[in-house]
Amino acid sequence: MSEHIVSRFDEELKDLARRIAEMGGLAERQVDHAMTALTRLDTTLARSVIDDDRRLDLLQHEAEEMAILTIARRQPMAMDLREIVGAIRISNDLERVGDLAKNIAKRVIALEGQFQSPKLLRGVEHIAELSLAQLKNVLDAYATRDLEQATEVRDRDGEVDAMYTSLFRELLTYMMEDPRNIGFCAHLLFCAKNIERIGDHATNIAETVHYVVTGELQLDERVKQDASSTTTVAFEG
Amino acid sequence: MSEHIVSRFDEELKDLARRIAEMGGLAERQVDHAMTALTRLDTTLARSVIDDDRRLDLLQHEAEEMAILTIARRQPMAMDLREIVGAIRISNDLERVGDLAKNIAKRVIALEGQFQSPKLLRGVEHIAELSLAQLKNVLDAYATRDLEQATEVRDRDGEVDAMYTSLFRELLTYMMEDPRNIGFCAHLLFCAKNIERIGDHATNIAETVHYVVTGELQLDERVKQDASSTTTVAFEG
To answer: Where is the PhoU domain (chains A, B) (predicted)?
Structure first.
């Protein structure tokens, strides 16, 4: 490639990276706001989360288009190709994180005026803190191409899953104790699941960082500790 | 492009299309088997769905890699580029459909030996039939590049969503009527949600067909009728 083309290519890569960074910041903020809206049952904040999701969808489409056009125009070498493929994958994950935050926000609106007991929210807050930390850490790992930090995120996904499994049991127990909790807890079950899935996306991003840096895929190796799909809670009424 | 290169390129496109067709068939079968496993509470079949999901994950990674390399090597024109980008998007959706089928299968295993009433399953069967039909139709639409059929799938997504919202209410009502239903119904809530999301992926694929054929994106237009996230069910105990 001539110097001129190289510098245009570098410009495109930088532009793509900026877009992913913007998406990362926005996704983090959306999750944070959705959780604040949930714990304070703040429907105004919930509505702003719902509205702001469009921005993430748009950025994702733009990032994907930009990435594909860069590949088509520049025929990049393997290392640069990995960078671009990594950007596409991460923008997909961040867009889905945004969808999950939006879904939590929608449930905040559903919960308005329902019977609710603050203790029911405590477990959800807990898992949300961990998932959000995972998301922040993996975005840092991506920004600095820090393989060690990415591996740490991937290794800690089991904690999120284990926390979710125990929360699933806990919420079912509350439902059995007092049927007035059922409506509230059903929505909290989905919020908890959404938060667990945000953790999964953090892990996907960690695997993408690994792929970008090393060129290796990490298929089938992940240890799944989310046992909630196979969890039985006996009725003890 | 020379004739030689053109024919190699056509070969690559056909190869990619074959892989997507294989993924489509497999995803359909996985959803079908997961639902049969659920309605018959057949844990053997459920386990085979869980095992077979790896094949879809692998195919998706291969399709993505093949697509990206084709773009990088051949610098395709706009129309061909859309074909390839479409294939990447559809393979992503199909891989996620497979994950949702796998999650239903996992819940079948959790439901073994639990208190269960067959009437609880009826609504879930119903929505599954519709979602599976949506998936079949959109894969047909993709295979034949049938814009009309794709639009029909997109338009019918509201039916899936509306059915899910009423099923959500119904399952909550069963939980309130008899706390012994809570464990079973909690898993069914997630199964129903998974099925509704399979319908969403069918709609995504319909939008991709539209994009491949026309070059236009269909952002922000979709009418969302899934009101379950904002549905309140009062306790009437």
So the answer is: 20-108, 125-209
